[in-house]
Specification:
This protein has about 575 residues and is mainly alpha-helical. It contains 15 helices and nine strands. The strands form four sheets. The protein has a three-stranded antiparallel β-sheet. It has a two-stranded antiparallel sheet with strand order 3-4. A two-stranded parallel sheet has the order 6-9. Helix 1 packs parallel to helix 6 and helix 5 (about 135-165) packs antiparallel against helix 14 (about 490-515). Belongs to the major facilitator superfamily. Proton-dependent oligopeptide transporter (POT/PTR) (TC 2.A.17) family. Keywords: Membrane, Transmembrane, Transmembrane helix, Transport. It is found in: Membrane. One of its GO terms (cellular component) is membrane.
């Protein structure tokens, strides 16, 4: 399909099939079921495979608790770093549609390989009993190869799907703009419905049927995700790639330092294209802002900046919009940094929360046992409860008092979630204190499951779910809205890297704590048998870090200036 057959909206999105009347037949909520269906199935696949991974490492690859926890954190972290690759390709060259399609194929290949590594004799670990298995180096390597192929595949999907869904709503249309904010809530709800099935049904399959089926069903779900995505092709609005964002950023930096000694004039004297549209494909012009004035030097026009035939050398002279793109990214970085500690708290659900629950009584009735990893279902139920409450009750009520279209600002929403995450860590720490007191009182040290119901973990999971609705959804919307138009996939990827760095931070803290607490032959905070440990110290440590993080966030939020495309109200 040729470029001449495209219809562009004000914010850079494009409808294919040249007739303007077609615009009313594409995008908005009519295109979203296919995107939400894709996300539901992909998240079902991801969480179905990852929720119980720490116990697969421990019992089938024969890793100790600390190593299994670190390996899960490192792999999960990689899953949230690779989106930088997918985002760059989407924004610069491929567009979001092609990026999602290409990386989905890698994802399915990785899921298939993981299924084979857990089900085919010779490729799967040799087991003496259910939880007593031994994997060769080659078998472990095959498992990790499959996992890191999945990490690469998800790198092209995570940063693009949410942005692609938001692209279906035009910022120039007030009705569609309101729906865009609501889209992020329902997008996150679809993630958690997939996670709900994964952490209940699929974890049960892994524990009671086989790991081959436990990984095979997620592989099938991922194949269905691809079918759902392609089914909506004719309804999508697509944004044309704007060229390499890294090149544009480098051009601003180089042009700035070339004019190090040049004095910055008034903003009206800075260089900008005369056209109503930005010179950057798929991007609106941005108003000049007064902070980071040093970079305005790149937009100061000198005679030496002109090339032959009146053209401009972009490595010597940049537009105001291009300079403002860099400023927007710089403004995002402090907000981004405050998400790392929250992500470290969030990562405990797939590591230490599971190991904590594995030492508690999993029985429901006389015979049925709920796997420890399935307790994350209450995080999911919390999200499913809070998303419609927030969207249908909290936002309309807050809107009456604040007059803000979304009820509260994105930064206010994120701050509330950071506060709730502190309560989640305190809840987990207090539970562990009570649990260890019972262990000492009744000498339960060697019991596999002490007689204390695993459902005492529900409050900590529920609180993290509530924190997610405020912080993670707020962060998803914030980074999409505040990133420059031609860098929105990169903005989404940037928000996802906080999850990666949070996992790495958690892994680093576990390593430091283990090294420090095991000196002199002590068992340490996180031994294989947590009945001899002090995991509550680790939870208190995260709570203290979260308090400091919240204080830093409040100062950053007060300083932050929201992006202003030309024509919007200040």
């Amino acid at each position: 399909m040729g470029e001449e057959d495209s219809i562009y909206t004000q914010d850079g999105t494009v409808n294919y099939r040249g007739d303007p009347a077609v615009r009313t037949q594409t995008g908005t909520w009519r295109a979203c079921p296919y995107i939400l269906g894709n996300e539901f199935c992909e998240r079902l696949a991801y969480y179905g495979m990852s929720s119980n991974l720490v116990l697969y490492f421990k019992h089938h690859l024969n890793q100790d608790s600390a190593t299994a926890s670190k390996n899960v954190n490192n792999w999960s972290g990689t899953c949230y770093i690779t989106p930088l690759i997918g985002a760059f390709l989407a924004d610069a060259y491929l567009g979001r549609y092609r990026t999602i399609a290409a990386f989905s194929i890698v994802y399915v290949f990785g899921m298939t390989l993981l299924t084979l590594s857990a089900s085919v004799p010779g490729l799967k670990p040799t087991c003496v009993s259910k939880d007593d298995c031994h994997a060769t180096t080659a078998q472990s390597a095959l498992c990790f190869l499959a996992l890191y192929l999945i990490a690469l595949g998800t790198g092209g999907i995570k940063p693009c799907v949410s942005s692609y869904g938001a692209d279906q709503f035009d910022d120039a249309n007030e009705t569609e703009k309101k729906h865009k904010s609501s889209f992020f809530n329902w997008f996150y709800l679809s993630i958690n419905i997939g996670a709900l099935i994964a952490s209940s049904v699929l974890v049960w399959v892994q524990e009671n049927v086989s790991w081959g089926w436990g990984f095979g069903i997620p592989a099938i779900a991922m194949a269905i995700a691809i079918v759902s995505f392609f089914s909506g092709t004719r309804l999508y609005r697509n944004q044309k790639p704007g060229g390499s964002p890294l090149t544009r950023i480098c051009q601003v930096v180089v042009a700035t330092f070339r004019k190090y000694n040049v004095k910055v004039p008034e903003s009206k004297a800075l260089y900008e294209t005369a056209d109503s549209e930005s010179s950057i494909v798929g991007s609106r012009k941005l108003d000049h802002t007064d902070d980071f004035r040093f970079f305005d030097k790149a937009a100061v026009e000198l005679e030496s900046d002109q090339m032959l035939k009146g053209s401009v050398d972009p490595w010597k002279l940049c537009t105001v919009t291009q300079v403002e793109e860099l400023k927007a990214i710089i403004r995002l970085l402090p907000v981004w940094a405050t998400g790392i500690t929250f992500a470290a708290v969030y990562s405990q659900m797939s590591s230490l929360f599971v190991l904590q629950g594995d030492r508690m009584d999993p029985h429901i009735g006389p015979t049925f046992e709920i796997p420890a990893a399935s307790l994350s279902i209450f995080d999911t139920l919390s999200v499913i409860f809070w998303v419609p409450v927030y969207d249908r009750i909290i936002v309309p009520m807050a809107r009456k008092y604040t007059g803000h279209p979304n009820g509260i600002t994105q930064l206010q929403r994120m701050g509330i979630g950071l506060f709730i995450s502190i309560l989640a860590m305190l809840s987990a720490a207090i539970l562990e204190l009570v649990r260890l007191r019972e262990v000492r009182r009744h000498n339960y040290y060697e019991l596999k499951h002490m007689p204390m119901s695993i459902f005492w973990q529900v409050p900590q999971y529920f609180l993290i779910g509530c924190a997610e609705v405020f912080t993670l959804i707020g962060q998803l919307e914030f980074f999409y809205e505040q990133a420059p138009d031609a860098m929105r996939s990169l903005g989404s990827a940037l928000s996802l890297t906080t999850i990666a760095l949070g996992n790495y931070l958690s892994s680093l803290l576990v390593t430091i704590v283990n090294k420090a607490s095991t000196k002199g032959g002590r068992l340490g905070w996180i031994p294989d048998n947590l009945n001899y440990g002090h995991v509550h110290y680790f939870f208190f440590l995260l709570a203290i870090l979260s308090v400091k993080n919240l204080i830093a966030f409040l100062f950053i939020a007060k300083w932050y200036k929201y992006k202003r495309p030309i024509g919007t109200l200040r």
